User: Fold these one by one.
Assistant:
Number 1:
Amino acid sequence: QQQVKQSPQSLIVQKGGISIINCAYENTAFDYFPWYQQFPGKGPALLIAIRPDVSEKKEGRFTISFNKSAKQFSLHIMDSQPGDSATYFCAASATGNQFYFGTGTSLTVIP
Amino acid sequence: ETGVTQTPRHLVMGMTNKKSLKCEQHLGHNAMYWYKQSAKKPLELMFVYNFKEQTENNSVPSRFSPECPNSSHLFLHLHTLQPEDSALYLCASSQKPGVPYGYTFGSGTRLTVV
C-alpha cells in the first residue's frame, strides 16, 4: 500500500503562474513532511519541510500548505520560473522511522 | 569535497557481470542509505546502515549486497542482475536513522542491465 499519494504526475505551467502539487497520507503518526526537488542527473534535494503543528510554511516563492484533518499537504510555487522545471517529490516520516516518498511530479514551466 | 558523492555516474552491465557502486559522504553523518528510483514509482528504500551496522533490509533480493566499512563509505555489490533492476540508485546520509533533518542524497548511479 502506497503510504503517500502524490498528484498530478506531470504539470505544465506558464512562466509567472502558480504551480500546485498535492499529496495525501493515511498514517496519523507521520510528523514530518518534506518536499524534495530533483533536476535531471541529480539526486533529490530538500526544498522545504513542515511539521503538523503549523498549517503553512513559506520560504521565498515556495509554500507548503498543511491540512491535518484532511491528511493532505501541498506545495505551491508562486511566480513559477523556467528554472523551477524539475521533478518534485513529497515525503512523510514518523520520528524514528523511515521516509515514505510520493511518486513524483514532473513540472515544466514554459517561458 | 562536500556532500554525498556516488561513483560511477553511469553503469551498463550484463546479467552475468559483477560490479559495485560506491558512495562516500563528507558530512559527518552516521547513517547511510541505498534507494532505488524507478520511473513513476516512489523511491524504494533498500538498505539502512547506522554506525556501519545494517539496521534495515527491505526484502531486497540477494543479488544486491551492501557493504559499509565505515560511517563515510557505502558500497552496493551487484551480481547476476535482471533487466528490471535497471534504475537510478541513490545513496543518502543523515545524522542518524529516524532523524529526518539533514537528509542528503547523492546524484545517483544510472544502472542499465542488458
Number 2:
Amino acid sequence: GQNIDQPTEMTATEGAIVQINCTYQTSGFNGLFWYQQHAGEAPTFLSYNVLDGLEEKGRFSSFLSRSKGYSYLLLKELQMKDSASYLCARGGGGSQGNLIFGKGTKLSVKP
Amino acid sequence: GAVVSQHPSRVICKSGTSVKIECRSLDFQATTMFWYRQFPKQSLMLMATSNEGSKATYEQGVEKDKFLINHASLTLSTLTVTSAHPEDSSFYICSAIDSRQGYTFGSGTRLTVV
C-alpha cells in the first residue's frame, strides 16, 4: 500500500516477545499509526507516533525513527488472543487527513 | 468514546442490484468521513473522502458514478454500490476523525455479490 512495507506473516510463541517492523516513504509524513485487525472486523487503534522514540502502552510499545522512515511494534508476553493482523499506517499528508495503510502483518501466536 | 456505527455488517446481493451502506457518528460530528475497501490479504485502500454538504473526493481509479457517496448531515455518510458485480465483493469500512480520539472506524460491511 503506497510504499509502506511490513512483513506479510509472522509466527511467535505464547509468552514470547515479537517485533513487527514497518518502513514507509517519508515524504509528506504526518504521524505513524499501528492498528490491530481481527479477520472480518474493523481495525482497533493501538498506537500513534509523531516524534522519534519509543511509546510504551502496557504490553504493546511502538518505536519511530522519522529520519529512517522506520517504525516497529513490540508485543510482549504474547497471548493467544494477540493472533491478528497488525496494520502500519501513516498520515496521508493530504488536506483531508486520510490514512495510508500497509498490507498488514498476520501474526500467529502458538502455544 | 467516539463511536461510528456502520450498517449493515454483512450483505449478499444479486449482480446488477444496488447496495447502500450507512455510517453514523454517534456522539460527535463528522464533517469528513473516509471510505475504505479491503480485499482479502490486502491493505485498506482509500476509495473516497466524504465531506458534509459537498461532493465527495474520489481516489484515482474509483468510479464516482458506481460508488455514490452522500454526506447530507454531520453524522451520516452513505456509500451506495450501484449495479454491483462479483468483483465488487469486498470489505467496506468507513472512518471519521474525532477531535478527542482521532480516527474512529466503523465495524465494516462484508459485501458479497452473487
